[in-house]
Specification:
Helix content is 23%, strand content 40%. The model has no long low-confidence stretch (mean pLDDT 95). By secondary structure, it is an alpha+beta fold. The chain has a 6-stranded antiparallel β-sheet. Strands 7-14-15-17-19 form a 5-stranded mixed β-barrel. It has 2 domains: 215 residues, PmbA/TldD fold; 232 residues, no CATH class. Helix 1 runs parallel beside helix 2 and helix 3 packs parallel to helix 4. The longest helix has 19 residues.
């Protein structure tokens, strides 16, 4: 995509030149250009393919102690000019923000990251079909009770750029792949379903067969689910379930959440909060990680740093604005979330433990194996209380063995309570909650409180 890369760079420079003539202090542009491929399959057969060229430019105009941005999905010069003129008009109307740090002028040391898969350039439709068919066949080979395999395989190949009026620039080629597999099994008792969301940067290493086998096993084992009493249970959070307390811990570690008084970790740096077995780093430099990147949307070089060390809170995730307001330095964690700029540790890795997932299960006398959660959200972010429902397989453990499945239930519990004495598996996976890469182990917890049952 060499020609297209030059085109998006020219578009960014066009925006910068337009803003310079409008009498503002400066401007910077974040851009993405991707060739997007998507294949969907249902009823164990591929039924849809499409390819699309996607691009966007986020143009941020800075004038004194204020800034604003506009995002467009075209490289048309006339539209770029119109959007820049609009942003300039808006920024001049805004009041000053005395905490705004102004233009980024410091030289940045952007890591040269190998984030692209060169094989994508020569990938054929047959290659994609073969990958999906292998997953479908793996699901059906597990059991005759497997009825249908469905899901999707999506990947984007292109470049991301950052260019500023102050001479900062970075162009990074990147490839990302995400996939979903859903499997439905059936017998005389009824139906059971399970699901997995996963991803990778390398097409050859996308674990579609491994995930299909695991989803098929959960789907079959989920048949004949019984209703159990909603109460507190010891549990093992399987990999995808573990991503839920992890990502909500990420929100609590956001400096923006701290400033907004929407975090249960306010003023707790240096304090033992979680299990001494729990450590989290933000690592945006791992080339296999879907969240890796050399800079954040402020143009600050991304950094690898520790958030939690043996249960002790070490740092918060900062962008330039939160760092200015809290009298510290940005650690390169600025991103767009819900249409707004937000500080978030977007490349979190939880440190693995010393036991296998099976060993963690074997240590549960009477409890549950939880595959996944959905519709989770804070009940009270200042106390870290979450609620949501189980999904994709809830299994009963007795004497260290899985003996059956249970109907889904709603949980309501505090993250600190869940993780205060947690143990972690030595195996880890790259989960993709909210399309963000996150490395998590399985987690054994002393207790999770279920507040009610569900209808399925």
């Amino acid at each position: 995509m060499e020609f297209e890369t030059e085109k998006i760079i020219e578009a960014a420079q066009c925006a910068i030149n337009r803003a310079k003539t409008a009498g503002v202090d400066g401007v910077y542009v974040n851009g993405n250009l991707n060739k997007v491929y998507s294949t969907r399959f249902a009823n164990s057969a591929i039924h849809q393919n499409f390819t699309n060229i996607g691009n966007n430019l986020m143009i941020t105009v800075v004038n004194g102690l204020k800034n604003t941005n506009v995002t467009i999905n075209t490289l048309d010069e006339a539209e770029i000019a119109r959007s820049v003129d609009y942003a300039v008009k808006v920024v001049k109307l805004l009041p000053d923000d005395p905490t705004f740090p102004g233009l980024l002028t410091d030289k940045q040391d952007y890591k040269k990251l190998n984030l692209n898969d060169p094989k994508i350039k020569n990938l054929t439709a047959d290659d994609v079909a073969d990958k999906i068919v292998a997953g479908i066949n793996t699901g059906h080979e597990y059991s005759k009770k497997v009825q249908t395999v469905s899901g999707n395989l999506n990947f984007a190949d292109g470049v991301s750029i950052f260019i500023s009026s102050e001479g900062l620039d970075n162009v990074t080629a990147d490839t990302s792949m995400t996939s979903t597999i859903n499997i439905m099994s059936e017998d005389d008792s009824g139906e059971s379903r399970s699901n997995s969301d996963f991803g990778h940067r390398k097409f050859d290493q996308l674990p579609i067969e491994t995930e299909a086998a695991a989803v098929a096993e959960r789907s079959v084992n989920g048949l004949n689910a019984i209703m159990i009493d909603p109460k507190a249970y010891p549990a093992v959070l399987d990999f995808q379930a573990a991503a839920t307390p992890a990502i909500f811990t990420g929100f609590a570690l956001s400096a923006q959440s701290i400033l907004d008084h929407q975090s249960y970790l306010i003023d707790r740096v240096g304090e033992q909060v979680f299990s001494e077995n729990m450590s989290i780093v933000n690592d945006p430099h791992d080339p296999h990680f879907l969240s890796s990147k050399p800079m954040d949307i402020d143009g600050v070089a991304s950094q690898k740093y520790t958030l939690v060390n043996k249960g002790v809170i070490e740092s918060y995730a900062h962008n330039r604005l939160t760092a200015s307001r809290m009298g510290t330095y940005s650690n390169g964690c600025s991103m767009q979330m819900w249409g707004e700029t937000f500080s978030f540790p977007y490349a979190m890795k939880m440190k693995p433990g010393n036991k296998t997932r099976e060993q963690l299960i074997s240590e549960i006398d009477k409890g549950l194996l939880i595959t996944n959660f959905h519709y989770s959200n804070f009940v009270d972010p200042t106390r870290g209380v979450l609620t949501g429902m189980t999904k994709d397989g809830l299994f009963i453990i007795e004497n260290g063995e899985i003996v059956g499945s249970a109907r889904n239930m709603r949980y309501t519990d505090g993250i600190i309570d869940m993780l205060s004495n947690a143990e972690f598996s030595k195996e880890v996976i790259q989960a993709v909650p909210w399309s963000m890469g996150m490395e998590v182990p399985a987690i054994k917890i002393d207790s999770i409180n279920f507040s009610s049952g569900t209808t399925h």
